Structures
1.
Amino acid sequence: MIDFQETIEAIYYELKQSQNKGVVASYIPELSKQNKNSFGIHIQHIDGRTFQIGDWNVPFSIQSISKVLALSKAIAFEDNRIWDRMDVEPSGNPFNHLSLLELEAGIPRNPLINAGAIVVADILVTHLKHPKTDFLNYVRIITNDNSINYNVDVAASEKRTGFKNYAAANLLKSFGNLNNDIEVVLDFYFHQCALEMTCSQLSKAFFLFANKGKCINNVQHISSSHTKRINAIMLTCGFYDEAGEFAFEVGLPGKSGVGGGIVALLPNDFVISTWAPGLNPKGNSLLGMQALEYFTTKTGRSIF
Ligand code: GLU
């Protein structure tokens, strides 16, 4: 039997010594205040056991990881109609790349790049009566934790510097793929990205993707068929233009964010979250990628 606690402790202490811890994101000024030495790992096993080490209980900006949670809520409203407005192909380009969107007539490559996530935000703004409050409540419910909140300073910081996201939203609007007002949709999107969660809360939030759509409280939020599809999208599109590398090295569906978080899961088995704010050149947490690669290699637990 694999000792998860012993395994993550060995990984943690080894990687803590790394000279190269990557570069903290600074294009959202508020994120540059993060400490490069922060590092946490948390595992939520499907049977209820948890394992943790380091800064697993420190809240951080989950950024693009929120795109998966928003997608799950949008799918619950729109079912497969959602795929009329976006595709499910990896982009092979950075998360905020725009030229493909223009070439492909305003249909984003997938829901996990910014343009796709902005369409998902548009869908939620259409369906939710109080979008920011209702989405926050959804995240609190699936995580079973009412202490989760938005960091309004991060949202404001991103709004001030979100020129590419404004460009994407304007392009989408020009192609008729955005129904609501650009300001309203982006305000929602910036808040969604500015959700703060700990590794432990992230593992719990993503429990439903490891559990056929049922959250940690055993309530069904999405069908098992949609869960399968969301996991497939995480595997193929969850790591910017490094999704192939993550599948190759780690072999789990997952999602990263520029705040340095990564969450990954093995269906019917466990969810693992890491946080280390230093990023590699592709925008993925450097230590997080390494930790997950060591973890699946040492334990032999991956989908392959
Ligand atoms: N809120 C960030 C943006 O739109 C998300 C980036 C990320 O985590 O990939 O630029």
2.
Amino acid sequence: MIFSSLRHLFLLEQVSASRLSYLTHMASTQFIGGRRRASEYGLQLKRTFSVIHGSLDWLTPEAREYVVEKARLCQPENIHVCDGSEAENAALVDQMVRAGTLKKITSDKFENCYLALTDKRDIARVERKTYICMEKEKDACPTVRFGSKAFLGNWMSVESMDFQMNRLRFPNSMAGRTMYVIPFSMGPVGSPLAKYGFELTDSPYVVSSMRIMTRMGKSVLDYLQQSGEKQFIRCLHSVGRSLGMLSSWPCDPENTLIAHFPHRNEVCSYGSGYGGNSLLGKKCFALRLASSLAQREMWLAEHMLILGITNPEGKKKYIAAAFPSACGKTNLAMLKPTLPGWKVECVGDDIAWMRFDSEGNLRGINPESGFFGVVPGTSMKTNPYAMKAIHKNTIFTNVAMTKDGDAYWEGMEDEDLDLDEVEVTSWDHRRWTRESEFTAAHKNSRFCSPAHQLEIIDPAWEDPKGVPIEAILFGGRRERVVPLVYESNDWTHGVFTGASMRSLTTAASLEGTVRRVNHDPFAMRPFLGYNCGQYFQHWLDMGKVANAKLPKIFYVNWFRKEERSKLPGGQDPKFLWPGFGENSRVLEWIFRRTDNEDVAISSPIGLVPKYGALNIEGLTPAVDMENLFAIRKDDWVREVQGIREFFEDQLPEDLPGPLWTELKKLEDRVASMP
Ligand code: O2Y
Ligand code: MN
């Protein structure tokens, strides 16, 4: 028995290793349905591929060559070139409903909404299987102190990864399936800030989701043909050869691998159909590859929301803000201010691409056109605008469903839903009640909704020039130490605050749930496309762009809690700040600072609001401002030690000199505190 299975494995390996040379000797292939045969393009292919939708003639010669090369590798049953039309999407949705991949949410509270339930092993993006592939390890990751575990990115050599992908994973990976060719634009088509890509995928769920998250289809193809634009990002995706546990959600979790080749403008993702692993325009292209492009082309690709804020006098400003994943970026981007007369509008909730224009203004776009937000906790209280937007034309993934065809998730606070009456089936197909020890919706369940449906989408969100950014916010989840808001002393100090960002994370471990304050520079730790030290240097260099009007940089923390030591025994500390709509009070102070109003005072860590300058009028219950803004010497001695340890451990050779200097300056200021 053992002998025969080993022999079987051996044979498989032989086949994989010889596949490429085998393929190159195959006879030429015809494309049926496209107007020309592939052999007319001079390409040698294994066999006949039918083009069942669209045409290869729609593609530029470079894009066509890419499609044919990958079709030869993945051996799909046929090829579908996406046009992005309503009719095309309706047919795909229909097909997915028939295959059980999507279920229609039939309740009349939802219009044209669907639910996808994934394989249990395919529920989030997988950092440990995500690599940056460059010639030298040093190009991708900083050198760490001897004996330390590298924390800032995974590297694999280009050759090893090519072998993994082209020999072991992708050959034949699309057999029996359609290869969809998705032409897409990150950013408004034709914008000087936009970039283009082709995602080749065997997942119709990815096609429908990319249609929401990006500008996709014929408009992009026409633009590429007409403009002569040659650059495009190559994105290859397959859910993999293994069927997984559900035939409605094929995947290959054991072999999942996601690779980025910044110098080839290429992403390859195998084995997962989920979110960030499969919608390759998002984290893979718009952050990892784009951050590397941005370094080479002198712009910024950041894990940031962009919001527009208008004061009661009608003056408007735009703010970009970086927070680690799961720190409420979507809620801030769609904030409903409690301050009378103030208005917030949303440009984007996750990614910002920014470049200084000829007048020196930092112009930003949201490269996406949809929201892929976390569902649990989304309610009329936490995010009323999102709540409305996600009730139509939305693909939900891994929420629960009631017997009446309603979607359900923890924290939705739906008074119309009587949970004692209605039968709920959890995302993983179990009968769920309020007493269940598991959650109804997966904690990383998502909505995928078109941005234009948001009531407060900014009127300029598709402006090809982008919007002028006047302030940049960094922040994280910190229960102690960090005050509600402070402003950096200058650009270099601001870059230092971004580099030293830390946030509380909660993760399951063998011992139970561990809560740890983790370093997450610029909220980019999982999304860096090149060496983090060089990334910091790039931010410093951006501060030297000729005639740049540098935005002010702030640090915010909505999550500070009461000091446990000051509470009666056993009492759980509460948040000191109400958050959500009340965060508009902090934005008001930031707004005034961008007008250089004299409402700030120096502190050892940066500029903080002068006494009385933060508008807390009408806040009930009253806020404990003293503890909310306390900057305690012992806390900050430890904080600065933590930053030094991080820099010395993870970036001993790569941290730019000016950031060592900023660290020393902060250490000195803290040391001289009374
Ligand atoms: O788990 C996933 O695949 C989604 S991750 C994600 C999605 C939308 C916005 N941000 C994130 C993130 O991890 O930062
Ligand atoms: Mn994100």
